[in-house]
Amino acid sequence: MAYNATALVRLAALKALAAKTKAEIDNINTDVSKAIKSLGVSGNTVSFYTSADKSGDAAFTFDFPKELFLDQAKTTFVQKFAFSTETYPGATDPKLAGKPVMVLAVKGQNPDSCTYSFLDMSALVDTYKAKATGKDASTTITVSGYEIEVKVNVSAAAGNALSLKADGLYVDISGKADKAKNATSGNFAALDANGNLTDSGKKPADFVAAETGKRLMTDAEGTKLGDIAEGATKVEKSATNGNVKINGVETVVYTEPSDVIHGTVASDEDVTAMLTEVFGA
Hints:
Blueprint: H1 11-32, E1 38-42, E2 45-49, E3 60-63, E4 76-78, E5 101-107, E6 114-120, E7 130-131, E8 140-143, E9 146-149, E10 162-165, E11 168-171, E12 189-191, E13 197-199, H2 219-226, E14 235-237, E15 243-246, E16 249-252, H3 268-279
Antiparallel strand pairs: 1-2, 2-3, 4-5, 5-6, 7-9, 8-9, 10-11, 12-13, 14-15, 15-16
């Protein structure tokens, strides 16, 4: 249903809205007191409390199946995996010998039994082969005293700026900001897309010299100033309810009728007093 969003409202209607809002807030505060604020875990039992420090009786609890809990003592990362039925009873050889493997052990119904899962971590772990001989500082990096060989692939496509030589990588800067082209007499010099000097095509006469107290104006700004009527007035906010200031003079826009039929316009003080009555100071 459409309505006038700028219409003035009776203070009684605003008070009714405030009272309804306070009732909703009181209801929310009551519900919050019953909310779960902390939880505790003991074994596979999870308990939920309405107190922040897990004091008192739990609001409710539930048990996870024991077989869903990892055995922290048997869950481990093995850098070079070797399978054996003695180490992983009941498991099937995952064929990951020599690889970095994350072993996950899940407790079974029997406290001494586990179900094992093996995650191949070789795709996530970088492995390098150290060079013990034939070191070349330009193509290796040093880790803990060992040099690790680094292979560099350089494209042979035309225009490639990188070239690989026996003693390292080189960058071809020919044609890259290494040439200068003089500007035409009387023109300003500029830089082209490659950073080379070039003729801007602009002369000093193309620019307006800066002067103190003056600035350039856009066409839109000039049009805006030109639309201001002769003898235009300045309108500003007034401290008096129902008034505006026109050229500094207080001007009445509307008055506050006192008859019961039309009611009155509520002032900021009226609204503040009503809200204090409903919500408290």
